[in-house]
Structure formats: C-alpha cells, structure tokens
Amino acid sequence: MVVGTTQMRKRRVVIRQLSALEALGGVTNICSDKTGTLTLGRMITRKAWLPGVGLYSVNNAQEAADPTKGHVSLGPAPGFSKDQKYNEKKAFDRDAPAVSWDVSMEKRAMTGKEEKMTPTSTNSTEAPEVTAELQEFLQSTALCNLATVRHDKEKNEWQAIGDPIEIALQVFAHRFHLGKKILVEEHGWTQLGEYPFDSSIKRMSVIYRKGEKGDAYIFCKGAVEASH
Asked: Pick the residue with more confidence: 226 or 132?
C-alpha cells in the first residue's frame, strides 16, 4: 500500500480515500471504452425480424451512413427444431391443461409459409420486395426518428446527423427508398405531434397524418415492455 501510494503521488493522482488503493491492488482486468478512441459511435442495422414475413439481413455493409453499400437478403427466421417444439408443447400442456388457443386458418397458412421460405440470393444487389408488413415497419422506423440522412452531391458522400441508433434505423429505411424525407415529400406524411423519448415509459411517439384529410397515426419506438 505504501509503494502504491508513492507511485500515485509521483504521478499526481488525487485520491479521496486511501482505502481504495487496497481494493485497486486486487484488480486484474480493467475494461474501458470511450467513443472516439476505441469505437467510432457508428452503428449498422444488421438484422430485422418481422413475424410472419422472415428475417431481413444486411450484408457487406461497412459504411454506417451509406444506404447504397451492401445488400439486403430475406430468409426464414431462426426457429426451434421439431424436438424442441414438441418438448415445449408437452411442458405447456402439462402446466396449463385448461388453456387452449384458437389459431385461425390464415395464421396457420402464414406460419407454414414462413417455415417453407427460402433465402433470397445473397448475390443480388436489389432489395427484397416491400411487403405490406415491411412497409408499416419502415414507416414507423423512419418517421419515429430524429436522425437525418442525406447525400452530399458536391462531396459525393452520404452524411448523417443524430443518435447512432436512430441513424442505423434511418439508413435501413433508406435502403428500401422509404426514408423520412421521401415519406414526407413524396408520400404525403405530415407530422402533427411528437412525444420525445421518456425513460419512465421507455418509448418515443410521434403523430403523423397521410394526406390533407387522412387519418392520424401514432408511431412508437422503444423497449418491448413499453407497449404495456
């Protein structure tokens, strides 16, 4: 402890409690991270799972702000094996014998379609077809978002401003040509209100209207439990 105190004094380290030196001497590993030194504060949306549709994967993308780099493929969502499904169903039937579920034929057909789905070609540079489910997801992703993604024609580069997570989501929407700017200018969405992210409810909400006399929609983004 005396040697440690001497070394600290030579390096002009200020210590409030000398007892902390004893605990510090027992440390074997120190893990630290600071944005800008070890990391760049940039994120890329790699995967997006839509129930009943599949798993969208972004491949060969290294530029966080450039939606033209890389390509998107659609494949089946990762599931359980037949044995795992059987064991879970058996355990569920044992624990809750009085519970039954009424699954519609449409839902069963959709589930079967998802299981038989094969991944799109990873060599294709074109994004998968925008289904109704994907369009709703991208609308919420782009509109309930404060980040800005734009292409600078003079510098011939993509630029992004905002939170790294929101930039990643906004860029993902741009990959399908459904970014916030396009939705507002070309699709007629108009913002009516905004509720910033609140840590107490763990979500952010915005209100938009499509067209001059269209219905108002609320788009939310946040934690899974935020909907309850």
From this structure: 132
Cα separation, 188 vs 130, in Å, equals: 18
Backbone φ and ψ of 218, nearest 5°: -110, 125
Task: Let me know how long the chain is.
Answer: 228
What is the torsional sign of CA 168, 169, 173, 179?
negative
Nearest to 194 by CA among 148, 143, 156, 121: 143
**What is the overall mean pLDDT for the chain?**
79
Question: Mind giving me the DSSP string for 179-223?
Answer: -HHHHHHTS-EEEEEEEEEETTTTEEEEEEEESSSPPEEEEEEE-
CA dist 3 to 20, 21, 191, 217, Å? 14, 10, 64, 66
Active-site residue numbers? 33
pLDDT of residue 110: 47
Higher pLDDT, 5 or 128: 128
CB crowding 26-48: b at 16 or more within 10 Å, else e: eeeeeeeeeeeeeeeeebbbeeb
- Helix (H) or strand (E) segment spanning residue 50: strand 47-50
Compute how many other C-beta atoms are within 10 angstroms of the C-beta atom of residue 228: 6
Which positions ≥6 away from 137 have C-beta within 8 Å? Answer: 48, 50
d(CA 159, CA 152): 7
Region of residue 151 (phi > 0: left; psi between -120 and 50: alpha; otherwise: beta): beta
